[in-house]
Design a protein that fits this description.
With 205 residues, this protein is mainly beta. It has two domains: 97 residues, Thrombin, subunit H, CATH 2.40.10; 101 residues, Thrombin, subunit H, CATH 2.40.10. The protein is 13% helix and 51% strand. It is built from three helices and twelve strands. It has a six-stranded antiparallel β-barrel with strand order 1-2-3-6-5-4. It is elongated. The relative contact order is 0.15.
């Protein structure tokens, strides 16, 4: 590795932000990165939830990982990781981070049973607990310009970004917070590497 990559790594350890990778089934040592707001952004939503960052050359974090900032406890989803090359060697990775605002459970239909009142009810098994994601009304980035367009789009739709490793599927149930249920209506797997973009609607099943 070039001296440049090592210099960047040492600088991050001195002035960067410490974080931990939250990849299910694997333990990682803390790492450091440099993160900042996109100063050209003026939309409050973007300033709150989107960050740009730089990871060291030897990071174990990849696109689709959830990372936790140790000083603040904030959770972020890595949606992009691009190598920066100098003298034919990778010296760091530029990345885009989406701040997670929910951490519920992803569940999947597994059959039916009778409840205590002898009513037939659906049963959902938990596929992923601590299911960190960015969830928002599906309006951001759609260029909605008028009340008519807003009404046509519908406020019931929700967009949700989560790791593809959680294996979300059509008809799954996502409970972002206790007692709030959504059904997965579509799963887009190729918008970002290792990241699933879900369209959700209120689950009344």
């Amino acid at each position: 590795m070039s001296d440049t990559g090592e210099d960047i790594l040492e600088a991050f350890e001195d002035i960067g932000t410490s974080f931990t990778i939250l990849r299910p089934g694997t333990d990682f040592d803390p790492e450091y990165l440099n993160s900042q707001l996109n100063r050209q952004v003026t939309k409050p939503f973007t300033r709150e939830f989107f960050r740009e960052g730089t990871l060291p050359y030897n990071t174990e974090a990849v696109a689709g990982d959830i990372i936790a900032f140790e000083p603040t406890g904030e959770k972020f989803l890595i949606t992009n990781r691009t190598p920066k090359v100098f003298e034919n060697q990778i010296i760091s990775y530029e990345c885009v981070l989406y701040k997670c605002n929910v951490s519920g459970e992803l569940r999947r239909y597994s059959g039916e049973t009778f409840d205590g009142d002898y009513r037939l009810v659906r049963v959902f098994e938990t596929i992923q607990s601590n299911c960190y994601a960015l969830m928002t009304e599906g309006l951001f980035g759609h260029g909605i310009e008028s009340d008519e367009e807003l009404a046509r789009f519908g406020l019931a739709n929700q967009e949700c970004y989560m790791p593809l490793s959680y294996d979300p599927r059509l008809e799954d149930r996502y409970e972002p917070v206790s007692g709030e249920y959504y059904v997965v209506e579509s799963v887009k797997k190729r918008r970002f590497e290792n990241v699933a973009l879900l369209e959700l609607k209120e689950d009344t099943r």
